[in-house]
UniProtKB/TrEMBL annotation:
It holds the Pfam family SWI2_SNF2. The type I restriction/modification system is composed of three polypeptides R, M and S. GO terms for molecular function: type I site-specific deoxyribonuclease activity. Belongs to the HsdR family. It is an enzyme of class 3 (hydrolase). CDD domains: DEXHc_RE_I_HsdR, HsdR_N. It comes from Mycovorax composti. Subunit R is required for both nuclease and ATPase activities, but not for modification. Keywords: ATP-binding, DNA-binding, Endonuclease, Hydrolase, Nuclease, Nucleotide-binding, Restriction system. Its EC number is 3.1.21.3. This is Type I restriction enzyme endonuclease subunit.
């Protein structure tokens, strides 16, 4: 039985295909008042199945609506006295701040409530298992007083609780103004006493032509505008127009998934809402595990895949979410998160524990790894490839070899194509393996026969450096090419890595004449390239990357020799870092 991937695409919230409103309709009126924009937005939400509550504009009305929604969700009824007690003890506890309220949505969303007659029932604020059971409603122009009275544009309620706040500006007004307004409301009234608006998880700002979303984190300073995000399609095409954003992001299932599945409330009390490419990658990994399991097609490259996400784009959060959601699949026994080298193991453990302290178990040694595998409550295991390989070599018959397991490799480098990979294929009978990388190996840059795709399976999602630069999520870079030195032209333009590694060519690259010329160029151009010519002499430092320890020593000596008589020599230090561990 074969599965066609396209049949399942409707289950993704980050869409592969979406025809933008502007492509099939004439452009909206260039001038549209804020009120008209708001009205149209609410109308679009109603068409998508949101219930519009026209007269909900006081705190009392909001609480009465929460009561109705929670009674419906939990299939029970509160007496007036019980409801007052539930609000006071749990729902709107006077001492609660933003952080406690957010924790109630993510971790403490089930409350054991004792009714007047003595029986106890779990009261759920949200249903995370069956997402579509949560009721979404929309209200507008809710007024609330803190230090100042503010009126909020559009609020989305989930089971009666305000979880999403939308601030609109008319077309042509800078979107930053909507951001600044949210910032002001946060200081003035959202968090006033007994305000259910402390439950807000997500802000959406729009001026009609640009629409962005961002998490309601406690740390909000002026620079955090950089953390606002556009929604996007799976190919990273941005969805900016409010019409298109409403049709995709505000589709009920999508919004509920973003709020309840694709967000992380970490141990430092920061709410992280995933970016579209992080969600897309996570969804496609989970889809791959499920479809391969259904087709009984495991332990092959086609039962896994790799994610090409550029360095600095938040791979750890994506891999953590994928690992965490994979452990919730009833047929998966364990998820291994595999990293290279000991120092990374500790670093990744700390990162993972930042997201969720109890879901992760690292191990000090191969024996520790074995103990961790045998514990039932341990669903995610962080280990290094070296430890995993030693375990497979020393233990011929572990129960885990027969179970359903997922492997997620943090950086699928060449070092993971070797012995460990062969042992893994031999030992584990039912596995699904995924690799994250910022630098995939393709046939044209492979040293041997193996490529990232031949080991891990096809590319499931990509978010490359050009996407990140366009989204202003990483710094731009500029490349200047230098004229090749005539004497060394043939070696400097050589593409073949094997030839470059040949002994005589290594010698040519380290020829004293060549090193001297390059060192002189660096010293002559350093001030210009690091922006130190602006008078105040403040600029950037620079890093010079070379191919080997031998090269580093040669350049270090040459640069110092050339500066021997300089009255302001550059300070030069050498840093040696490990290569990825070979077997």
């Amino acid at each position: 039985m074969t599965y066609k991937s396209i049949a399942e695409t409707n289950n993704f919230i980050v869409l592969d295909k979406f025809t933008k409103y502007s492509e099939v309709n004439e452009a909206p009126a260039a001038y549209q008042t804020e009120a008209a924009l708001e009205k149209e937005f609410i109308q679009d939400l109603i068409h998508q199945g949101y219930e519009y509550l026209t007269n909900l504009n006081t705190q009392e009305a909001m609480l009465a609506n929460v009561r109705l929604q929670l009674q419906s969700l939990n299939n029970m009824e509160f007496s007036d006295g019980e409801w007052a007690r539930f609000v006071e003890e749990y729902l709107d506890k006077p001492s609660d701040n933003l952080v406690e309220k957010t924790r109630k949505i993510h971790d403490n969303y089930i409350h054991d409530f004792v009714f007047d007659d003595g029986h106890i029932q779990n009261i759920y604020l949200v249903d995370k298992k069956n997402i579509t059971r949560n009721k979404v409603q929309v209200i507008s122009q809710f007024e609330q007083k803190g230090y100042h009275a503010n009126r909020y544009d559009v609020t989305i309620l989930v089971n009666g609780l305000p979880l999403v706040q939308v601030e609109l500006k008319k077309r042509g007004v800078a979107i930053r103004e909507a951001f600044n307004q949210v910032h002001r409301y946060s200081k003035e009234s959202f968090n006033s006493q007994n305000s259910l608006f402390k439950y807000i998880q997500l802000f959406v700002i729009s001026n009609g032509t640009d629409t962005r979303y961002f998490a309601n984190t406690t740390k909000r300073d002026k620079n955090s505008f950089d953390f606002t995000m556009n929604w996007a399609k799976a190919d990273n095409t941005l969805i900016k127009d409010l019409k298109d954003f409403t049709a995709t992001f505000f589709e009920k299932r999508v919004l509920l998934n973003v709020l309840l599945t694709y967000s992380v409330f970490d141990t430092s009390d920061t709410l992280l809402i995933m970016r579209p490419y992080q969600i897309a990658a996570t969804e496609r990994i989970l889809w791959k595990i499920k479809s391969s399991y259904q087709a009984k097609n495991w332990s092959k490259p086609e039962s896994g895949g790799y994610i090409w996400h550029t360095t600095g784009s938040g791979k750890t959060l994506t891999s953590f979410k994928a690992a965490r959601l994979a452990t919730q699949l009833e047929f998966i026994d364990k998820v291994f998160f595999v990293v290279d080298r000991k120092d990374l193991d500790y670093q990744t453990m700390k990162e993972y524990q930042r997201f969720s302290p109890d879901s992760v178990n690292g191990s000090e040694s191969t024996a520790g790894l074995k103990r961790n595998i045998e514990k039932d409550d341990n669903r995610i295991i962080v280990t290094t490839i070296q430890k995993l390989n030693n375990l497979m070599k020393s233990e011929s018959d572990l129960a885990i070899y027969q179970k359903q397991v997922v492997f997620i490799f943090d950086e699928c480098h060449r070092s993971q194509f070797g012995e460990a990979q062969k042992n893994l294929k031999k030992k584990f009978k039912k596995y699904y393996q995924f690799g994250f990388t910022g630098t995939p190996i393709f046939p044209q840059n492979a040293l041997g026969a193996e490529t990232t795709a031949s080991v891990f399976g096809r590319e499931l999602h990509s978010y490359v450096i050009t996407d990140a630069i366009r989204d202003e999520k990483v710094l731009k870079f500029k490349v200047d090419y230098n004229d090749v030195r005539p004497k060394f032209k043939s070696i400097e333009t050589e593409q073949d890595e094997q030839k470059l590694n040949a002994a005589e060519n290594k010698k040519a690259l380290l020829h004293p004449e060549r090193i001297k010329e390059i060192s002189q160029y660096i010293l002559q151009n350093y001030r210009i390239k690091t922006h130190r010519t602006q008078g105040n002499n403040r600029g950037f430092n620079a890093m010079f990357a070379v191919s080997s320890v031998d090269a580093a020593k040669c350049y270090y000596e040459e640069l110092n020799k050339l500066q021997k008589d300089s009255d302001k020599p550059l300070k030069i230090a050498t840093i040696f870092s490990f290569a990825a561990n070979e077997e």
